[in-house]
Design goal:
The protein has 184 residues and is mainly α. The chain has one domain. The chain contains 7 helices and no strands. Helix 6 packs antiparallel against helix 7. The longest helix has 65 residues. It is rod-shaped, with a radius of gyration of 25 Å.
């Protein structure tokens, strides 16, 4: 994460609802696992689930991004450029993919060290992995809505193009008749 990225996207990313929910989840899991030894005892199970969840979310995000990229043509590219550019359109997908990858990474590291670190480190690992998982999961739900919006906008654009072509065809069809009337 470069300083340039933070200046351009940091505020929108770290002030977003999905990030905020992830922070709340991390704090909740941290406190709960710090107070409850039974929860810490099930930490390996939770980390395995979060490892799988992170991998699955990355796959879903890549699929959604592929849908967005498949919609790009010259006309839709112009619309995206007007709305902030392709980079801005792709950034939410990148952000969720990175959060999901970090979910898997933290969970994988946690699985390796969970049984040898003190209780407070276990709680920290569970809190961090769980917060990232919640951020990723909620971010994915938002991406579904965003991708659907792109689909709707693309459909609207195709409708406008179709209507314009019909109007052009109507004008062309009327022209010969008008020429016949003028010559007759």
């Amino acid at each position: 994460m470069t300083l340039d990225w933070v200046k351009k996207y940091g505020r929108r990313t770290f002030m977003s609802g999905d990030f905020g929910l992830g922070v709340v989840a991390a704090l909740g899991f941290g406190v709960a696992s710090g107070l409850d030894a039974t929860l810490r005892g099930r930490g390996n199970d939770l980390l395995i689930a979060e490892l799988g969840l992170g991998i699955a979310v990355v796959a879903v995000v890549l699929a959604a991004l592929a849908i967005l990229v498949a919609m790009l043509d010259e006309m839709y590219l112009r619309i995206l450029e007007y709305a902030g550019g392709v980079r801005a359109a792709v950034m939410p997908y990148r952000t969720v993919a990175v959060a999901a990858a970090w979910t898997s990474l933290v969970a994988a590291v946690g699985l390796f060290v969970f049984d040898v670190v003190p209780w407070w480190a276990r709680s920290g690992l569970l809190a961090l992995a769980s917060g990232l998982a919640v951020w990723s999961l909620y971010g994915t739900v938002q991406l579904v809505g965003l991708t659907a919006k792109h689909g709707i906008w693309r459909g609207d654009l195709l409708g406008v193009i179709r209507d314009a072509r019909r109007n052009i065809d109507d004008v062309k069809a009327k022209r010969p008749r008008e020429e016949e009337r003028a010559s007759g």
